[in-house]
Amino acid sequence: MTQTRFLLGGDLPVNRIGYGAMRLAANGFTGPARDPAVGIAVLRRALELGVDHIDTAAFYASDDGSVTANGLIREALHPYRDDLVIATKVGPVRQPGGGVHMSTDPAELRPQVEANLTELGVDRLDVVYLRVGGGVAPLASESIGARFEALAQLQSEGLIRHLALSNVARGHLAEAAAIAPVVAVQNAFSVGSRDELAVLEACESAGIAYIPFFPLGGGAPDTNANRIEAVARRHEATVPQIALASLLASSPVALAIPGTGSLAHLEENMAAADIVLTAEDHADLG
Ligand SMILES: NC(=O)c1ccc[n+]([C@@H]2O[C@H](COP(=O)([O-])OP(=O)(O)OC[C@H]3O[C@@H](n4cnc5c(N)ncnc54)[C@H](OP(=O)(O)O)[C@@H]3O)[C@@H](O)[C@H]2O)c1
Questions:
Q1: What are phi and psi of 119, to 5 degrees?
Q2: Pocket test for ligand 1, best of 210, 260, 266 (most atoms within 8 A of CB)
Q3: Residue 97: its pLDDT value, please?
Q4: What 3-state DSSP class applies to 145?
Q5: Which pLDDT value is given to residue 138?
Q6: What is the pLDDT of residues 258-277, one digit of tens each?
Q7: What's residue 68's pLDDT?
Q8: Per-residue b/e over 136-163, b at no fewer than 16 CB within 10 Å?
Q9: Contacts of 54 (CB under 8 A, 6+ apart)
């Protein structure tokens, strides 16, 4: 399996296909608990297959809170390999009994960072995203400066190595970068949804990673599926594999973090690293 690599934050080399941990505890942001033994097997197999970048959050948990992504990561992989990068997010906080509180008060971020440190069993978090807004589309008018300053303070205290942003508009990137370096942006994206081009271009200009969530459309049918299927047939590949190959081909700063709780899907997704799309494929994908 051939993986091209990206230098995250200038000092963390990662393979361009990583792993999104949101699907470990439940098959979605909410849902009944998935089998934790399978989640642990998926995480261990992911590393065998070349994953060295895991995307997680303290708020990735089953409805009843009995299974959490951070808990499974620690149980499966701690003590961590030196080359493993674990990125987490702060902002949303899962409430007892369901629902999510979106922190807009900067003072709420320190306990969230501390919770991630404890749950993952580390002294310093590799990458922390400030997750902004309640939905999956950025709210350009929302100021993030005070919250990003709070995270920059925690970074200066040595609790965080790199800072990043999630669900942001292009203006947020400039607002944050004036406070502290931003190493990645994580916004909604899929082969069928190219609304994020302005943010992607900003990431390219700054040389920072663009690591979209929903790289497989969040499991929803892709509006571009017919075109992807034609390309998939040519490569004897699957639609998700072509979606991932297309994402990686879209920009040298694009990284993929497909989410799965399935060993078979994990194998399939990691094999997408071997697919080289042709000019004909790109033309067909539109
Ligand atoms: N920053 C944010 O606001 C935000 C929001 C959402 C997600 N995220 C992060 O981004 C990561 C990726 O997003 P995502 O997991 O929501 O969506 P995704 O990767 O686009 O899609 C995951 C869905 O596709 C299914 N799937 C995965 N591989 C497949 C395959 N080869 N064939 C068929 N189905 C497949 C999964 O089901 P199975 O589990 O059954 O394979 C799951 O239902 C998350 O895991 C999380 O780390 C961040």
A1: -65, -40
A2: 260
A3: 75
A4: helix
A5: 83
A6: 999 999 999 999 999 999 99
A7: 97
A8: eebeeebebeebbebbbbbbeeebbbbb
A9: 18, 19, 21, 43, 46, 73, 84, 85, 86, 87
Please tell me the distance from the alpha carbon of residue 39 to that of residue 25, in angstroms, as a whole number. Answer: 7
Q: Evaluate the CA torsion angle 175, 214, 43, 114 in order and state its sign.
A: positive
What is the per-residue pLDDT across 120-141, written as a single tens digit (0 to 9) for each?
999 999 999 999 988 888 888 8
Distance 150 CA to ligand 1 centre (A): 29
- Which of 214, 228, 244, 269 maximizes ligand 1 atoms within 8 Å of its Cβ, making it the mutation to test the pocket? 214
Mean pLDDT calculated for residue range 69-95: 97
Helices and strands (H, E) in the chain, number of each type: 11, 11
pLDDT tens column, 57-66: 999 999 999 9
- Protein residues whose CB sits closer than 6 Å to any atom of ligand 1: 20-23, 27, 55, 89, 131, 166-167, 186, 213-219, 240, 257-262, 265, 268-269
Cα separation, 207 vs 139, whole angstroms: 24
